[in-house]
Structure formats: structure tokens, C-alpha cells
């Protein structure tokens, strides 16, 4: 399953977040894969596309960062999958 992770960085914690990342990497548990990410120009919101075998594994990763970041998790499908779903019964 793929997930769009919307991250809202805690005010004033941006340096701490990047320092942790530099020291420890993404700290992904087994079964969770990073695909790509984007950050808004104000460096207050991040968007990560992740793949995970389970929501529980994804939550394990979130727990390692939640003191610096607030997370919103949205399960997503590709545009092609959405099109197939819409026209499935035609």
C-alpha cells in the first residue's frame, strides 16, 4: 500500500529534525519504503510518498519522529488505478 504522508514540522524544530535525519537516517522499520519527498518553500510542511506492508509498520516509523513533526497519513492509489476503479463495471 502507498501512503502520502503530510508532515507539519513543529515550530522551531526544523534544525533538530534535519540533525536527527543526518545522524540516524529515516529510521524506517522493516516493511516500510521511502519513495520520494517534497518540502514547501517555507520549510514548514513536508510531503512524503511511502510504501508500507501495514499501517502498524508505518506507525512505528511515525513514533520515532512525532516529537518533531505532526503527521497526517492518507492511503493513495495511482491515477491509473483510480481510472480502472471508476470504469471497473463498464
Q: How would you portray this structure in words?
A:
The chain is 31% helix and 36% strand. It is an alpha+beta fold. It has a single domain (2-86), classed as Dimeric alpha+beta barrel (Alpha-Beta Plaits, 2-Layer Sandwich), CATH 3.30.70. The protein has a four-stranded antiparallel β-sheet with strand order 2-3-1-4. Strand 2 (32-39) and strand 3 (45-52) form a beta hairpin.
Q: What's the helical proportion of residues?
A: 25-40%
Number of strands: 4
How far apart are the termini? Answer: 26 Å
Seen as an oligomer or otherwise, the chain set is single chain
CATH class: Alpha Beta
**CATH topology, what is it called?**
Alpha-Beta Plaits
Shape: elongated
- Low-pLDDT regions: none
Overall pLDDT level: 96
Q: Largest sheet, order of strands side by side?
A: 2-3-1-4
Structural Rg = 15 Å
Going by helix content, strand content and strand pairing, the class is alpha+beta
Tally of helical segments = 3
Could you state the order of secondary-structure elements as H and E? EHEEHEH
Total domain count = 1
Strand content: 35-45%
CATH superfamily: Dimeric alpha+beta barrel
Mind telling me which CATH architecture this is? Answer: 2-Layer Sandwich
State the major sheet.
Answer: 4 strands, antiparallel
Amino acid at each position: 500500500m502507498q501512503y502520502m504522508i503530510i508532515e507539519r514540522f513543529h515550530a522551531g524544530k526544523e534544525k533538530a529534525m534535519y540533525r536527527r535525519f543526518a545522524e540516524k537516517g529515516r529510521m524506517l522499520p522493516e516493511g516500510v519504503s521511502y519513495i520520494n519527498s517534497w518540502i514547501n518553500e517555507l520549510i514548514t510542511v513536508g510531503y512524503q510518498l511511502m510504501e508500507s506492508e501495514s499501517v502498524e509498520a508505518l506507525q512505528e516509523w511515525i513514533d520515532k519522529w512525532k516529537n518533531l513533526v505532526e503527521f497526517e497519513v492518507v492511503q493513495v492509489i495511482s491515477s491509473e488505478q483510480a481510472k480502472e476503479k471508476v470504469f471497473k463495471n463498464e
